[in-house]
Write a structure and sequence with these properties.
- The chain has helices at about 15-25, 35-50, 65-70, 95-100, 110-120, 135-145, 160-175, and strands spanning about 55-60, 75-85, 105-110, 130-135, 150.
- The protein is an alpha/beta fold and about 180 residues long.
- The protein has two domains: about 1-85, Rossmann fold, CATH 3.40.50.10090; about 95-175, Rossmann fold (3-Layer(aba) Sandwich), CATH 3.40.50.10090.
- The strands form two sheets. A three-stranded parallel β-sheet has the order 3-4-5, sandwiched between helices.
- α2 runs parallel beside α3.
């Protein structure tokens, strides 16, 4: 029964999270226009107007930026890990074979942790495909690892990532 949350303001990092909340009967009162921790922190600080208490429901991995910015602004934060993501220990032999053959056109990279995992698992084989980063942050990690993305999403969502790939393909098929 979600009625016990009456009067509690809920923020979501982006539209995907807001949609997931809606499926459980919850409304996101705040979704920043740019789907990054920095933007969410700034929006919460601006909207709240004064320090308060914030429950951060998050993944086990990820940057501490949101909590750090809120604490710096005087907020009291409590963090709850809602899910854990784990690295795959070994590469799928079929994926290795397809990468070796140059048969994979695109690899989408949706987080910095995934970028690091991909490089660990597939290494130089990634130079035989195009990488699409969901955000500039993920793109920066790929570049630091020596695998610059062909595209970065303008909107940091799966839809934005697909759109970036489609636009790249459209531009390159016309030339």
């Amino acid at each position: 029964d979600v009625r016990f949350l009456a009067g509690i303001r809920i923020a979501a990092i982006g539209p995907g999270t807001a949609a997931a909340l809606k499926r459980f009967g919850l409304h996101a009162d705040l979704v920043p226009s740019t789907y990054r921790a920095e933007s969410l922190a700034e929006a919460v600080i601006d909207r709240q107007g004064r320090a308060g208490r914030v429950l951060l429901v998050r993944a086990s991995r990820g940057r501490e930026t949101l909590a750090e910015m809120l604490v710096s602004a005087g907020f009291e934060t409590e963090q709850v890990v809602a899910y854990r993501s784990l690295d795959v220990p070994t590469a799928d032999p079929e994926v290795l074979r397809l990468l070796e053959a140059g048969a994979i056109d695109w690899v989408t990279v949706t987080s910095s942790a995934i970028a690091r995992s991909l490089v660990r698992l597939f290494g130089e084989r990634l130079h035989r495909t195009r990488l699409a980063a969901i955000s500039p942050l993920t793109g920066d990690v790929l570049r630091q690892l020596g695998y610059p993305p062909a595209v970065e999403a303008d909107t940091y969502t799966m839809e934005g990532l697909v759109q970036a790939v489609v636009e790249w393909e459209r531009r390159h098929s016309e030339s």
